[in-house]
Known about the structure:
By secondary structure, the chain is α+β, with helices and mostly antiparallel strands.
Amino acid sequence: MPVRRIVVLAFVLLVGRPVFAQEWDRYQNLEGRFAVTAPGQPTIEKTRWKSEYGSMFPETIYRWQEGPNRYTVTVADYSDSEAIYTANQHSVDFSAPMYWQIDILGSIQYAATQYRQKPGVKVTFDAFHYINLVTGHELQLTNPDQSRTYVGLYLHENRLYIFDATVAKNMPPPLIFQQSPEFLDEKGNSIRYRTYYFNRVPEARLGRGGRGAGAPAATGGPQGAPPGGGGPIQRGQPPQQ
């Protein structure tokens, strides 16, 4: 192929691709304790996240739009799970105090299920994942309009993080957004772990005798466990509020 033809073809391919105004850069948010590489500054929405067991937690959604492509970071703060869960009226089946801990520990799986159950989506990847040694889960989905959604879910210091990138049909995977998340300390420094990080639930404060849900009782069983000790914990049906 003549050199001139190669140059012209490359120019046509370049011009034919969408040109977006935003410049990608590292975005840092100290309140949410995260950083990510994204196109420009996000719009920010304060709302509420409804958990698996019906608790309403503070939620902040950070949104970016680049042409037809959408990027979001959702941060749901489970830090006050014990107090919020205890304040609600639950059915007898879900009255055991340990359920506020289960709500935190199962938050990644619960969030992943919300994606899997969206009408018309096809899950093409669904597996354990980690970023900067913080353990989590990754999903990839094809939507009814043939756009693709790439999701990373992580639980860090009792905050649920959902990194969601949806790109138009035939667009390349959003690798920069997917691979750039960082978790920050209170001073804004990027946290680096030496081994895999698994979230620990907060220390119980409202439990019986100063011990909360899940703390070992004198008999060896979990404090506040359902009668019968050792039976399966019920999941899947949120309690009635």
